[in-house]
């Protein structure tokens, strides 16, 4: 091959001479023969020396545009590296790469053409550098850039761990590089491979389940699949730190959501809570106007921030719950009508309930009961209800209407007028009791007596109780002897806390002391 190239070059030089001698065919033939002979001779004799004269050079291209030729490609690459380091010195922990595509084409030539200095000058003017970055993108909208996968994983991990039970999302590699492409961990769909055996059959070992500190068994966990990740070059000034990306992922974007009207809420308050004007709220709810009255439980559309990452997980948890006891009422003829008495105190039971609970961004979105087991039955509360009829006719024998005490004023002439009863005071318990069976014929306020109760004993007798602080009976009610009808007080025209007690027989005042 080398010999052929030499012959061609000699023939080329000889052709110029032939032009001058083209009219002399004999000379032409002679020269041609001589040249061919010389070519063969030169090819065989000087092949090795000519071979040593060839040099490999490199044509340098920037974005497919030729900028020059160099003998040493390393000189160009070193120059680019130095420019790269110089650019990186302006940024911390960011790897830069040339924005332009640098390529080389090699060629073997006799006479090398070295334009290294010119090439470097052109590169100096042409080269710009981008940061090697990971781009996060949601529905064709760029969320942001970080310098490497480690930063992306840290930011995502910090967000995820705020929404997952402790230990479930820790140290998970969410993104990794495979065949020069970023791939997502299986956690973006389900659990990572080392914890995918959480949903096991009854025959599988309990050790294969992931059990949290509270005893819950993790069935599933996942992240949103809508975020795409790609390796790109970008302006270094657009690179986010781990903290910045974390906050961005949490803050997310504003989107339409449903709000349920709570008690005392009006449209203006709803708009204010979501940082909306009333016009913006009405635009989201065209069926409403500013005078619309909303009801508790009504749903309206609002606009609120939605995080870019939705983190959900499902657990199966077993809890112990109480079982309320029932209250059973039984009739009792040993108690009077209106009387009630607890015969047996109720006691709550216990049960184990298994729930399947799904949580999204720290909010429980579903809770399904799987099974329950009663471990202790509840004990009914039994209340006795009196059926015994209280006789409305008195016995004719009066009991003391107070609990102890002394008489401070007797029936008779007092302060220039007749005192028609007795006054009882100095008691330790202010309960006032019915002196005998009867029916309440008066229970209320009197201008002189204050709070007053009158009982008709339906045997010709009536009793009157005055100056009470409170009344415990009502008109028409049948009471039995000794039953509480009120509390001693000092209402009406009274000089202090006491009971004014009167007895009537056939409508005429009689001395209460005749009965004690």
Structural commentary:
The chain has 516 residues and is of the alpha+beta class. The protein folds into six domains: 2-51, no CATH class; 55-127, no CATH class; 135-251, no CATH class; 253-306, Membrane-bound Lytic Murein Transglycosylase D, Chain A (Roll), CATH 3.10.350.10; 315-388, Resuscitation-promoting factor rpfb fold (Single Sheet); 402-515, Glucose Permease (Domain IIA), CATH 2.70.70.10. The protein is 22% helix and 40% strand. It contains nine helices and 31 strands. The protein has helices at 2-20, 25-45, 47-52, 73-88, 116-126, 149-163, 242-251, 267-273, 278-284; strands at residues 55-62, 65-70, 96-98, 102-109, 129-138, 141-146, 175-178, 181-184, 217-223, 227-234, 253-260, 299-306, 311-323, 327-336, 340-344, 349-360, 363-376, 381-388, 402-403, 406-409, 412-414, 417-419, 422-425, 429-433, 438-446, 450-456, 461-471, 478-479, 484-488, 499-505, 508-510. The strands form eight sheets. Strands 19, 20, 23, 24, 25, 26, 27, 28, 29, 30 and 31 form an eleven-stranded antiparallel beta sheet that branches. Strands 3, 5, 6 and 10 form a four-stranded antiparallel beta sheet that branches. It is rod-shaped, with a radius of gyration of 53 Å. The model is unreliable at 1-47 and 190-207 (pLDDT under 50).
């Amino acid at each position: 091959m080398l010999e052929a190239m030499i012959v061609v070059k000699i023939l080329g030089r000889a052709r110029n001479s032939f032009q001058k001698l083209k009219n002399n065919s004999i000379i032409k033939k002679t020269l041609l023969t001589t040249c061919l002979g010389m070519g063969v001779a030169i090819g065989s004799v000087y092949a090795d020396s000519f071979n040593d004269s060839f040099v490999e050079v490199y044509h340098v291209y920037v974005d497919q545009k030729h900028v020059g030729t160099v003998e040493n490609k390393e000189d160009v690459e070193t120059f680019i590296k130095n420019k790269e380091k110089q650019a990186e010195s302006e940024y911390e922990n960011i790897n830069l790469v040339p924005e332009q595509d640098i390529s080389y084409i090699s060629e073997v030539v006799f006479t090398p053409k070295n334009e290294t200095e010119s090439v470097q000058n052109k590169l100096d003017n042409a080269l710009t550098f981008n940061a090697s970055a990971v781009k996060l993108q949601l529905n064709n909208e760029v969320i942001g850039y970080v310098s490497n996968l480690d930063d992306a994983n840290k930011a995502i991990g910090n967000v995820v761990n705020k929404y997952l039970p402790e230990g479930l999302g820790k140290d998970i590699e969410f993104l990794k590089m495979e065949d020069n492409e970023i791939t997502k961990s299986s956690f973006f769909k389900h659990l990572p491979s080392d914890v995918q055996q959480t949903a096991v059959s009854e025959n599988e070992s309990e050790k294969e389940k992931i059990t949290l500190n509270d005893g819950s068994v993790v069935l599933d966990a996942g992240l949103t699949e809508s975020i795409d990740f790609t390796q790109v070059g970008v302006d270094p000034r657009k690179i986010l730190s781990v903290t910045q990306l974390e906050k961005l992922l949490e803050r997310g974007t504003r989107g339409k959501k449903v709000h349920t009207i709570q008690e005392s809420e009006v449209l203006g308050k709803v708009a204010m809570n979501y940082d909306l004007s009333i016009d913006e709220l009405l635009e989201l709810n065209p069926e409403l106007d500013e005078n619309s009255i909303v009801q508790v439980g009504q749903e309206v559309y609002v606009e609120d921030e939605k995080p870019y990452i939705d983190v959900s997980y499902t657990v199966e948890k077993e809890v112990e719950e109480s079982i309320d006891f029932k209250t059973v009422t039984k009739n009792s003829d040993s108690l009077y009508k209106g009387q009630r008495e607890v015969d047996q105190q109720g006691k709550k039971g216990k049960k184990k309930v298994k729930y399947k609970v799904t949580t999204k961004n720290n909010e429980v979105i579903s809770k399904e009961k799987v099974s329950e087991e009663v471990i202790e039955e509840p004990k009914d509360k039994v209340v006795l209800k009196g059926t015994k009829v209280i006789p409305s006719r008195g016995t004719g024998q009066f009991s003391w209407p107070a609990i102890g005490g002394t008489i401070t004023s007797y029936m008779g002439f007092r302060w220039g007028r007749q005192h028609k009863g007795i006054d009882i005071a100095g008691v330790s318990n202010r309960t006032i009791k019915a002196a005998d069976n009867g029916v309440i014929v008066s229970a209320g306020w009197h201008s002189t007596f204050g709070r007053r109760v009158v009982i008709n004993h339906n045997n010709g007798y009536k009793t009157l109780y005055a100056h009470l602080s409170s009344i415990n009976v009502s008109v028409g009610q049948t009471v039995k002897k000794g039953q509480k009808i009120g509390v001693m007080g000092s209402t009406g025209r009274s000089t202090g806390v006491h009971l004014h007690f009167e007895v009537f027989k056939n409508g005429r005042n009689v001395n209460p002391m005749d009965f004690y």
